[in-house]
Protein 1
Amino acid sequence: MLDTKLTQRLRQIVGEKFYRDDQEALVAHSYDGTPMLQSLPDGVVYPANTAQVSEIMKALAEYRVPVVSRGSGSNLCGGTVPVEGGIVMVMHRMNRILEVDMENLTATVQTGIITAEFTAHVESLGLFYPPDPSSMKISTIGGNIAECSGGLRGLKYGTTKDYVIGLEAVLANGEIIRTGGKLMKDVAGYDLTKLLVGSEGTLAIITEAILKLVPPPSSKKTMLAMFKDLYGAARTVSRIIEMKIIPATLEFMDNPTIRVVDDFAKLGLPLDMEAILLIEQDGDPETVERDIERIREICEFEKADRIDVAENREHAEKLLTARRSAFTALARLKPTTILEDATVPRSRIADMVLRINDIAKKYDVSIATFGHAGDGNLHPTATTDARDHEEIHRVEQAFEEIFEAAIELGGTITGEHGVGLVKAPFLEWKIGAAGMEVMRGIKQAFDPNNLLNPGKIFAKETRKRVVIDRG
Ligand SMILES: Cc1cc2nc3c(=O)[nH]c(=O)nc-3n(C[C@H](O)[C@H](O)[C@H](O)COP(=O)(O)OP(=O)(O)OC[C@H]3O[C@@H](n4cnc5c(N)ncnc54)[C@H](O)[C@@H]3O)c2cc1C
């Protein structure tokens, strides 16, 4: 229970109707996109501007009450579950595009804006903001920044971090800092902008962002390459890059994913394929034609069983949407869907997929895999039922082994979804004890009283590495 003097102060700051502690609001903000995690906050606050965020933080610091910043709660790592109670700060009211600067090709936004609304706006002005997480119709720019989200265009255009050049953020003590700016070059001290990108709400509340925009590509072409041989598909990915072709999109779906996506999107995909690559190139029409032709040749060389080039934009969008809906399609199979994002060097994609399949078999669980093949970023997705505790235990064991396998293959435990709560016990596997100490030091410098999203990134206990039985 919060001190009533504090709740009165919060109500004064944001206005009566923008502080809530009724049961409906508390339950609605007790969970996020991550299955099987729930914890009630003590209150929910909806600030309208940076000054209010600053006043809220000052009040919370005085009363030592934790705060979880929240965009749309679509994250998949338990990042917005208020495990230590306190306040959930919802950023949706701070959703204005403050400026699109046509001279500097930048946009300044409040971070509660929905990603797809922002990208549609800049596109209407003839500009392009490439980061495109599949959740972009619901996610916020603030959530994208705090998770450093990637998307289908990551291979060629990079991820959120490559487009954030300046930030305004409110510290745990309520002070407001500005980092970076409308600058393409800036080496004045430590790069706090990059440090805050991917900080998962644990270092500061990000209130405004200056985002880099680029000219849009003048044409695009999309194709599907279908393989009965998984290795053929994986070799195709490596060979495309080796041939110095960087497609805008290079996505992978395995057979179980192909089946559910086809059932969901009714595309008439061949269900006997082991893997499908969805490939898109963009740029000037000549380069696009040439690259698509060369990619087709590589696919043929690697014995693709079928290659379809989208006839028009409408058809291409349908294919892209189908891939974007892979998670939703899989979620229809069973009551609980657990999606992970183990990432390996792209040359190890086939090894990783085979390892995932072996691990799924070993633990007798259903795991479908899709993902950003060009980035080596795979999404092994378990379809299960949270009520079946014994099966859930096996799924957890399988994922632990999948993380271990990713690290063994030179990869990481998360490529784009963040550490949050669910991967915190595994973080040390990736960055080592010394790396953890440095991160703890950074956290301490920003947030000495551990009020910003406590319980995330830093686990109370690090999981012991399992010994993989290859028998
Ligand atoms: C169907 C589906 C598809 C997805 N596809 C992708 C994908 O392709 N690529 C990808 O990378 N992710 C994907 N995600 C995961 C998720 O959508 C992203 O992590 C997204 O960026 C989260 O945005 P959000 O606004 O929902 O943030 P939230 O879930 O609300 O918050 C995420 C984290 O950011 C922090 N945060 C939020 N706003 C702020 C702020 N203003 N200041 C400081 N911290 C803040 C929170 O505390 C939390 O730690 C997907 C999720 C779903 C459900």
Protein 2
Amino acid sequence: MTATGTLHRTPTHPWRWIGWLLLSQALVALAWAWLGWKAGLPLMLASHALFVVPVFLPNSGFYAPVLSRLPGPAVWLTIDDGPSDDTLAILDLLERYDARATFFMVGERAAARPELVHEVLRRGHGLGNHSQSHPQAWFWRLGPRRMAGEIGRCQQALAAIAGTPPRWYRSVVGMTNPFVAVALRRHGLARVGWSARGFDGVHCRPDAVVARIARTLAPGAIVLLHEGAAHGHNPAIIESVLRQLQARGLPARLPPETA
Ligand SMILES: [Zn+2]
């Protein structure tokens, strides 16, 4: 198997977690019966935590395989939440620094501004699926039907604009619940996490964000970036990261999409 053959991994057993759930609860029931509630209750709570915690771990492969680092010298810049008012400025920056990036787009934002999607592709960058409506407060607890809709409708929206459907997927706020994998499998999507992030959310200080990213920049890093945030700092953060990459001689390239 080649190195690239392992990069694009779609889930092969999207319901595997049900087996683990049944097994763990059977063991808890046995322990409860034999040892009483003082052992059974803590074991039950701990077993539930085992299934809840991975939802909130962006690089946990428990519910779906995840790519969080690349082989080779290149860095993968991933830019979430667009398209936005920042997209064109970011494209100019990427061009100036001879960098490639993948834009993980929100389906309804792409449908509203298809010309930005075309421009991203025209300039040699990649597209990824980042849900249809970006329901960040409750993405973690979407049921099977709504999760299938968020991933499937984004896939349709981006395919309608780009001509081909995306091959990469990023969970909203990195949360991946038990119903993500089946949708990824249906659409041939591989999930992408990250190895470098700066926490550039609502109350970010750009210099602190860049410092946090810079500490984890290395060959093979997958960098989580954003566009369109209300604080308006996203293009400046991306420019600083590009400057860091240039200073360290790290190229920003796209990984091969074919498995
Ligand atoms: Zn997002």
